[in-house]
Write a structure and sequence with these properties.
Elements: H1 2-10, E1 14-18, E2 21-25, H2 35-52, H3 70-79, E3 82-83, E4 86-87, E5 93-96, E6 99-102, H4 108-128, H5 134-150, H6 161-179, H7 188-194, H8 199-215, H9 221-224
Helix pairs in contact: 1-2, 4-5, 4-6, 5-6
Organism: Oryzias sinensis (Chinese medaka)
Protein name: Reverse transcriptase domain-containing protein
């Protein structure tokens, strides 16, 4: 995969590679019309390189998402019907390393999916809660539920509290399951007793931790350089 970066860079297109996942990024202003052809030329060179190396570009796994105001997205979508012969329909959401990105960057789809998955695991843990010690139950909750609330949560820093409310409901349900309390009992004292930071504070803590690491030279270079 190493030569792929040189091919993309030749076309002055930003990119990011993670294992066998390659993403191309283009910033386009409404009056600029040549960027689509630039992307086409890049895809063409990539396909040529893949053919030489006996690799196939799978159209079913090739996705495009357009971020920006809806009127500009609609205008650009009409232009992107194919990329060098590959039929492409812009998606309303795409998965990026486990995070669902939507066209408005509201992350509503990601939050909804995270909550569904977390509640599914909570229901399974609830079925065996009576045979688990409190410490073992807490380990399961952190492994299957809290980990999903925390995953890439710094992306949610600009989300309104209304969007984060569903994530907080998941944490509240997990705390009540662990402690064996009812929904009528106040949640704040319970979270304090468990030393569980609320969801919005966990997001702020993640960003503060990254900032601290960047200032002290122990963050990855792409963060530290900022």
């Amino acid at each position: 995969m190493l030569p792929l970066g040189n091919i993309i860079s030749k076309h002055s297109i930003n990119f990011h590679c993670y294992a066998d996942d390659t993403q191309l990024y283009l910033s386009i202003k409404s009056e600029e019309n040549d960027h689509i052809e630039k992307l086409n030329a890049c895809i063409r060179d990539i396909k040529t390189w893949m053919t030489i190396n006996y690799i196939f570009l799978n159209p079913e796994k090739t996705e495009v998402i357009i971020l920006g105001p809806k009127n500009l997205r609609d205008a650009l979508s009409a232009q992107i019907v194919s990329l060098d012969g590959i039929s492409i329909a812009p998606h309303s959401t795409v998965k990026n390393l486990g995070v669902l990105f939507d066209q408005d960057l509201s992350f509503k789809a990601h939050i909804s999916q995270a909550c569904r998955t977390a509640f599914f695991h909570l229901q399974n843990i609830a079925k065996i809660r009576n045979i688990l010690s409190k410490s073992d139950a807490e380990k399961l909750i952190h492994a299957f539920v809290t980990s999903r609330l925390d995953y890439c949560n710094s992306l949610l820093a600009a989300c309104p509290k209304s969007s984060l409310r569903s994530l907080q409901l998941v944490q509240n349900a997990a705390a009540r399951l662990l402690a064996g309390t009812s929904r009528r009992d106040p949640i704040t004292p319970l979270l304090v007793s468990l030393h569980w930071i609320p969801v919005d504070s966990r997001i702020k803590f993640k960003i503060l931790l990254l900032t601290y690491k960047a200032l002290h030279g122990v963050a990855p270079s792409y963060i530290k350089d900022f």
